[in-house]
Design brief:
Calcium-transporting ATPase, cytoplasmic transduction domain A, 5 domains, 19% strand, 7-stranded mixed β-sheet, alpha+beta
Length: 766
């Protein structure tokens, strides 16, 4: 088997989607290089290198030839290149809605899995930028490379005007010619480099042709003005593009760089990157929490708004989980680190947004294909405009050359191609700040068209923290025995219903019996070998329905279970192979915002429905209070069938906990996982809700619909301006400087319109 290495680099100077495309395509051409991915937001390049193929130095040389900076990253070559995934054992009861494998995200470096394989960007056919130096970030516009070019070309243009005023128009022509040639020189250099890379149709090449052509027909003053306006447009475009990335950059800066590590009763300041799982850190009031972990001691208000968007601080104490980047508002806390810096919640959010670049919206793919033919067609049209009127209608050559050159500048599809990714990037960033994570443009477009939403019940519509309300002891058994056996079977489970049983066992002061070989019976319950007075015997905690069919309870207990279920309670039966022990009833209340969320969903013209493994009576009690339809006693495969059936009639969204709902989440047009940044929530579905708020579901749909409306506005703006100025340029109404404004101006307007999404609050109705 051929040895492979997965390598990572930091690439500086990428400021648009076409930059990632150029890097990706250039690196992919090298021998022995595969799985090339480029992340625009984190500016990372990763690739798998085969033994005997291209070396890391070869890749670095190619990237530098493209005009970018590159340096080795942290992902030094590890043999194999494949990512491992660990399976977690699930646990299921009939009413548990909770079982199955889940992928683990541990061991991954932020930014390694990112975009790159796409052809998106206003550059295919290309738009080659003067690439920003990373050192320019955070500087005022006039201190950046693009800003200095604007100032330089502006001074040249002003000096030419002053020279013309002081001398004559004849001498002024030469001044403007000099200003144009000097100003267009860096643009021409970039056009030449693009041509060498096989990209002849770039705005730089068209600019060069238009400027030189204008000089030949004596329009030196206008040529110099066009060069200046082009520099201004490029600078504004760079500023706008960087604004779209500021949200994610700010997110990365939420985690402090250092932490107070507690060892042997003393504390010392260490880099956060060096923290290891199991270590203890001290967090003072006002400090940001340096790592994901759990509180060992102390009680304080935790402001999680930087991570989940939750505006109200939450009081947390010993045993409660906390996220890196959250703010400790009140008292000193001791926190046990549970995740390394590369795997904390914020790192995973950033990684998710990076990966979202891969999932391009269908609209974006269509526009990209359209742009491949659009620019060559415009070039051909421009040539025809220059040649046909003088050759066949006696037109003036200078006039029609001028109009053809103006048409060339109109022709670059930059504004059109950037219209979709700019809106998508702003939407992803805006959603991430509010705890709404969507895995790309395809998800946004699908979410905007859903007509029905299927909800899991436990932990989604309900709090996921049921409490035991009733114990019904079978004849010949006692309460202590019932709880001891139930606790034995449930020991080790993290499911909400199992935790409720174990909490009641602990509260009663009962020690669970020894048990082994516990296993979940999907959709039915759990069984284990439990040690008792007469030796080991199989014991079950399962649904009454399954227990009745297995002889675990009699008709009397089954009737009693029915009465408890009619009260909206979840009931499990506890029994040995031949002996009933009794029933345990639990109740899980709906979340406080569930009813309001369903009202909002219905107001948006969407039909909500509950899909649950719980019994029909409990499901009816919950659904009735929320005004929803429901389907109960559903196995995971049943949920999958229902989602498939619903999807045949239109867009369907599935909301679940990302564990036993995984098949249904994948089958749905959009699968959304609820949960506070868990591995499963971020891995399983198309989108994730970080805050445990049901009202974030309609908010996610509103964000998607608003994004698609923004995209339609951008496309209309880009095509509309192109169409208007294309006609006016051919008719001679507008000239070269208006043409360049139509190109760069449209790109800036489209980007600024997309940036409006950064301030959009999807939580507000209307």
């Amino acid at each position: 088997m051929q040895e492979t290495n997965r390598r990572e680099w930091q690439v500086g100077g990428m400021d648009c989607a076409s930059c990632t495309v150029k890097v990706t395509k250039a690196v992919q051409k090298l021998p022995g290089v595969s799985d090339v991915k480029v992340a625009l937001i984190s500016e990372r390049l990763t690739a798998t290198l085969s033994e005997g193929g291209a070396r890391p130095e070869d890749i670095e040389a190619v990237v530098r030839r493209l005009g970018f900076e590159i340096s080795p990253g942290k992902g030094a070559g590890k043999p194999g290149g494949a990512r491992a995934a660990n399976d977690h054992a699930g646990h299921d009861h009939a009413g548990h809605d909770h079982a199955g494998p889940a992928a683990d995200m541990r061991g991954r470096t932020p930014g390694v899995a990112a975009s790159g394989g796409s052809d998106s960007g206003h550059g295919a056919p290309g738009h080659v930028h003067s690439h920003d130096n990373p050192a320019d970030r955070g500087k005022a516009w006039y201190l950046t490379g693009k800003g200095r070019l604007v100032i330089f070309t502006g001074i040249l243009l002003a000096l030419a005007w002053v020279f013309e005023l002081l001398t004559s128009a004849e001498y002024g022509y030469w001044a403007f010619l000099a200003a144009c040639v000097i100003g267009v020189a860096p643009v021409t250099k970039r056009a030449y480099e693009a041509l060498r890379m096989g990209q002849p149709f770039t705005i730089e090449s068209l600019m060069t042709i238009a400027a030189i052509g204008a000089l030949f027909i004596g329009a030196a003053e206008e040529a110099a003005l066009v060069v200046f306006l082009f520099a201004v447009g490029e600078m504004l475009e760079g500023v706008a593009a960087n604004k779209a990335r500021d949200g994610i950059r700010a997110l990365a800066n939420l985690v402090p760089k250092t932490a107070l590590l507690e060892t042997g009763g003393t504390t010392r300041e260490v880099p956060v990157a060096e923290l290891a799982i199991g270590q203890t850190v001290l967090v003072r009031p006002g400090d940001r929490i340096p790592a994901d972990g759990s509180i060992l001691s102390g009680t304080s208000g935790i402001d999680e708004s930087p991570v989940t968007g939750e505006s109200v601080p939450i009081t947390k104490s010993e045993g409660d989980p906390v996220f890196a980047g959250s703010i400790n508002t009140e008292a000193v806390l001791r926190v046990a680190v549970s995740r390394e810096a590369s795997d904390n919640t914020i790192a995973r959010i950033i990684r998710l947004v990076e990966e979202a670049e891969e999932a391009r919206a269908p609209t974006e793919r269509f526009i990209d294909r359209f742009s491949r033919f659009y620019m060559p067609a415009i070039v051909v049209l421009s040539i025809l405009v220059i040649l046909i009127p003088p050759l066949f209608a006696g037109g003036d050559w200078d006039t029609w050359i001028y109009r053809g050159l103006a048409l060339l500048l109109i022709g670059c599809p930059c504004a059109l191609v950037i219209s979709v990714p700019a809106s998508i990037a702003s939407s992803l960033s805006s959603g991430a700040k509010k705890g709404l994570l969507l895995k790309g443009g395809a998800v946004i477009e699908a979410a905007a068209t859903v007509s029905r939403i299927a909800f899991d019940k436990t932990g989604t519509l309900t709090r996921g923290k049921p409490v035991v309300t009733d114990l019904v002891v079978a004849p010949g058994a006692d309460e202590a025995q019932l709880l001891a056996v139930a606790g034995a079977v449930e020991t080790g489970s993290s499911h909400p219903l199992a935790r409720a049983v174990l909490d009641r066992v602990q509260a009663a002061g009962i020690t669970p019996l020894p048990a082994r070989e516990a296993r979940a019976i999907v959709g039915k319950g759990v069984e284990a070998l439990v040690a008792g007075p007469d030796g080991e015997a199989k014991a079950w905690v399962s649904s009454p329905h399954h227990a009745l069919s297995a002889g675990g309870i009699d008709a009397g207990l089954n009737d009693h279970a029915g009465r408890l279920e009619a009260e909206g309670k979840t009931v499990v039966a506890v029994y040995y192979e031949t002996r009933p022990l009794g029933l345990i009833a639990m109740r899980d209340e709906p979340r406080e915002d569930a009813a309001d969320a369903m009202r909002q969903v219905r107001a948006m013209g969407i039909t909500p429905i509950i899909l649950t493994g719980d019994n029909p009576r409990t499901a009816a009690a919950i659904a009735g209070g929320l005004g929803m339809e429901f389907r109960a006693q559903m196995m995971p495969e049943d949920k999958l069938s229902v989602i498939r059936e619903m999807g045949a009639d239109g867009g369907v969204m599935m909301i679940g906990d990302g564990i036993n709902d995984a098949p249904a989440l994948k089958q749905a047009g959009v699968g959304v996982a609820m949960g506070s940044g868990t591995d499963v929530a971020l891995e399983t579905a198309d989108a994730a809700i970080l805050r445990d708020r049901v009202t974030d579901i309609p908010a996610l749909i509103r964000l998607s619909r608003t994004t698609m409306a923004n995209i339609r506005q951008n496309i209309t703006l880009a095509l509309g301006l192109k169409a208007v100025f294309l006609v006016t340029s051919v008719l001679g109404i507008t000239g070269l400087w208006i043409a360049i404004l139509a190109d760069t101006g449209a790109t800036v307007l489209v980007t600024l319109n997309a940036l409006r999404l950064l301030a959009y609050d999807p939580g507000k109705e209307g």
